Each structure stands twice: as C-alpha cells, then as structure tokens.
Amino acid sequence: MQRIRGLAGSGKTIVLALKAAYLHTQYPEWRIAVTFQTRSLKGQFRRLINNFCIEQGGEEPDWTKPRILNAWGAPGGDERDGIYHEYCRATGAEFLDFRSASNKFGKGSAAFDGACKVALENFSEDACRYDVILVDEAQDFTPSFLRLCYSMLTRSKRLIYAYDELQNLSGASLPPPEELFGENDQGQPLVTFDDDRRQDVILQKCYRNSRPVLVTAHSLGFGIYRRAPEGEQTGLVQMFDYPALWEEIGYKVRGGQLAKGQHVVLERTEETSPSFLERDLEVNDLVQFEKFMDEAQQNEWLVEQVQKNLDEDELRHDDIIIIHPDPLSARLRTGPIRKMLFDVGIQTHLAGVDTNTDVFFRTDTPSVTFTGIYRAKGNEAGMVYVINAQDCNRPGANLASLRNRLFTAITRSKGWARVIGWGPYMQGLIDEYSELAKHEYALDFTYPDDAVLHKLRIVHRDLSPREQERLKRHKRDIQDVMLALESGELRLEDINKSTRDRLKEILAKDA
After folding, report:
1. Are residues 122 and 227 in the same domain?
2. pLDDT higher for 261 or 468?
3. What is the percent of the chain where pLDDT is above 70?
4. What is the rounded average pLDDT of the residues 388-415?
C-alpha cells in the first residue's frame, strides 16, 4: 500500500506511469490496473507507460497485463471498460450507469459513491483480479471507490493512490487510511502507514508551475488576501486542518509561527519551486489578471490574444488551453468565442465534446483546446486562459469548491496564466492578486484556530442546487420576519414563548 501526495505539477501522474512500467517489466505476469477520473488522461498514461517500458525493458508492454481503465466504465468492450464495470461483471452485482445511479443516489459524486457502496455488498473472490492497482486523482473519488479497488486486489493488496487535496472539486476530503479502508474482524485497521515514508510519500517540488503561478493559485484557492466580509473575522475561504502540511508541500516559514491562531508568513523556496522561468521572463508577464466591462468585451480581447499568440508569439495551437471553470455551462459560454475564432481562421475544439471522450488535444489538425474544468485536470499547456473567472468569486455556499476550480485551472499552466473576467466579483480577484504581488508572492495571514476552521467549513460548504434554493428561501423568510418586527406588523408577543426561547439559545451559541 502506498499513498502519494503532491502539488499540481509535482509529477504524480509521471510517478504512477513509471511505477506501472517498472512493475510490468519486473513482473510481466502480474495484472496491473491504472485508473483515474479524467478520461483524457487515458491517452497520456498509455503513451507514458509505453515509452517507459521501452526505456526499461527494450520493448513495448504486453497490453493484456497492464490495463488503463476509467473508474466507472460501461459495456462495449475494452475501450469502454472501467474498474467499477469490471467489478460488477465479476461479482454479478447490478451495474448502474450514470443516469441510473443519479436517479437512485443523487447527482455529482453521490451517484458513483452510491453505486460503489451497493456493489461492495455483493463481494466475491471472483473480483480479486489484480496484483496492483494505481489510482490517479484520488482526491476526486469517495472512499467507497478506493475500497472497491482494494477489494479487487489479490492477497498482497498493492494499492497505490495519488492525490492533491486542493484539486478536490467535489468538496469532500479523503480520510486517513485507517479510516478509509476499515477494520478486520479483530477491530484492527486493515491499512496503516506507521509514519513509513516509503508508504506515505509527499512530492514537494513543483516541476510544472513557476513560483508566481503556483503561489497565485494557492493564494486565490485559500482566499489568503480576500477581504473579510462584513461581520466576519477572516476572509479565508478554506485552510488545511494540519498547519505543518504547508511545509510538507514545499513552503517555508519566513516570519511568525506556523500554528493555529498565529500570524505566519510563508514562501516557496528555490529547491521546491525552481526559478528558471522567473530568470528568463518578467513576473508580471507570467501571471496577468484582466477585468472587462462585460462578457462580450472579454471575448473580443481573448480572440485578439489568441491570434497574437499564434501569429507573433510563436505558440502552436496545442500550446494554448482556454478553461471555463463551470463544467455545466462551458459549451454555451465558449460557443461565441469559438465562432469568433473560426471567423478569423482559427480552428478550435471543445475537449470531450467535439472529440472522443479520451482525447484532450487534437493531433489530426492544428486546433486550440477549449474545456470545462473537469476535463482540464491532468493536462497542461504553455499558455492558459481562465475565462469568466468572476464565477469563482461568488459569495456564500460552494465558495471553497469554486476556489478549488480556480486553483486547478491556473495550475494547468507551465508558462503563462491569464485570468480574465468581468464585473465586481472579478475586481475582488484582482484586488487579492494585487495584495499578493505587493507581498512579493509570500502568503501573509493569521492561521485560523479550530473554531474559525469549523465555521469556514460550514459557511463555504458544498450545496446542491436544490439545497441552495432552500437556503435562499430560508434567508428570505428570516428577512421578512425581521422587517415585520421592525415595522410593528409582527410583535414579539405574537411568537410563542418556547419559540422565542429556542431562538435565544441558538443565537447565544453562535455568539
């Protein structure tokens, strides 16, 4: 068993591909599975494993032994197979596709979580098909899927899972292995790492992003320089429960104390963020934030910039990714931009929509990639545009997940990042970035104590659209009651005493 944690761009996918290739060349009879959430990673894994096997063993892999599988899968042969689908076939459990699982368990991660939990109830030894399973993007899976992977292993239980906590787009964190994989009949954890660094690996060095790009992504992801809303003591959106994790991912303390409730200044080191890009390029060219009057003006500017990138900056079409953070509206919101680019002779595609679901960059023709945030994960390019970024700064519930989307989008850049949008929420992001630049890309903040951390988790928690609507309705109801009391239309005596007493108790707890 092994857990690999690392920042975006720290090489988690490369490490997993190397491990798969190494194990295949050393133990060619082993059955190995590599699985992930983002379907466009399939081609990348196949290319990497193929190249690494040739380097290590002098020949291409026997693809009947290592298998590259999507997590969910569907009927239709090897190309459509997945870990969950294979498990259902092996055990006779009912296979649920996305629509069926959503109808039964709810949308989003709840659908796959429910499907995996039901499948696990039908475990049989026939499911133990693999000697090794490697899981990328584990932060986007619920524990039930990792338990399903664990149950598909032979007795050796060689499961390797890699993740970056801040790239979690579902809002739920992975628990520690002792909790994640459960207990045996004697009440002992099935998996424990016992501080063994060979089992619990942290990749500190970021190979993809320059220091300004990575720190910008972290600053906005956590809301380090976000102005505190009225009545709140901090503008932070989220924070690690374990302060020392900042040092583990490559930051060092420049000032203050890295502890809950204490002021601290954190910065990245030359060792963990190599400065080769900073030496050759201006920092204000690596990261830029732009605000426009409206979406149309934003789109016009973007088209001009893409033309300049291709005609003057010597970038190729596949050096550019344009990311819309909201996956549900990506097709609609990117449509006008793609038409404008087509009109000036620039070919584009929407990854996974205009291409096969396993394809991110087109290789058959020069074409600029547009994508929603989920398909962007695991991919990278020299120039990354994050459009309609203001949507990641809307206050209230879901803000932590929205900021994680922004973090993930920015960290796709291995060169330049352009974060663009319009309206007052975009100005808020620009103000945060300006403060970061003033602090020379150091994170200067007061670490929240346990009480503040608890409140952040509540205030910025993930809510479904139905739950958001219900919350809005409750807020309106409370506002109506307040207005009625102030106007005299409703008097305190009209509210029964037990209700008033309960309300006092609730407000006293919050105070």
Report:
1. no
2. 261
3. 95
4. 92
| This prediction's pTM | 0.81
Q: Give the total residue count for the chain.
A: 511
Is the domain of 274 the same as that of 180? no
d(CA 99, CA 82): 16
Do residue 197 and residue 223 come from a single domain?
no
- What would the 3-class secondary structure string for 67-82 be? EEEECCCCCCCHHHCE
461: confidence class by pLDDT, cuts 50, 70, 90 = low
Q: Which 3 state secondary structure label does DSSP give 212?
A: helix
3-state secondary structure of 479: helix
Picking from 121-135, 186-200, 400-414, which range would have the lowest pLDDT averaged per residue? 186-200
Residues 479 and 407 in one domain: no
* The last residue of a domain, from among 203, 221, 240: 203
Tell which residue, 31, 199, 49, has the closest CA to residue 131: 31
Return the pLDDT at 24: 97
Is residue 343's pLDDT more than 70?
Answer: yes
- Per residue in 10-32, pLDDT tens? 999 999 999 999 999 999 999 99
Count up the domains in the chain and report the number.
3
Domain end residue (candidates: 170, 187, 203): 203
Q: Look up the CATH number of the domain holding residue 422.
A: 3.40.50.300
- 312 and 367 in a single domain? The answer is yes
State the Cα–Cα distance between residues 12 and 202, nearest whole angstrom. Answer: 10
> Which amino acid is it at 357?
T
Contact call for residues 338 and 319 (beta carbons, < 8 A): no
3-state helix/strand/coil string of 264-282 = EEEEECCCCCCCHHHHHCC
Asked whether residue 140 carries a pLDDT value surpassing 70, the answer given is: yes
Are 162 and 133 within 8 A, CB to CB?
A: no
- In this structure, are 257 and 136 located in the same domain? no
Q: Quickly list DSSP for 9-63.
A: TSSHHHHHHHHHHHHHHH-TTS-EEEEES-TTHHHHHHHHHHHHHHHHHSS---T
Tokens of 183: 């207990």
Domain that holds residue 394: 211-454
**Residue 172 scores a pLDDT above 80:** no
pLDDT tens digits, one per residue of 291-326: 999 999 999 999 999 999 999 999 999 999 999 999
Does the pLDDT value for residue 428 go beyond 80? Answer: yes
Question: Residue 511: is its pLDDT beyond 80?
Answer: no
Q: Indicate the Cα dihedral angle 15, 17, 22, 25, nearest 10°.
A: 180
- Bridge-based pairing of strands 263-268 and 443-446 is antiparallel
Give the integer Cα–Cα distance in Å for 48 and 16: 10
Whether 444 and 474 share a structural domain: no
Distance CA 271, CA 278 (A): 14
As a whole number of angstroms, the distance between CA 16 and CA 2 comes to: 11
Say if strands 320-324 and 381-386 run parallel, antiparallel, or are unpaired.
Answer: parallel
Report CA-CA distances (Å) from 134 to 216, 274, 297, 379. Answer: 30, 28, 45, 18
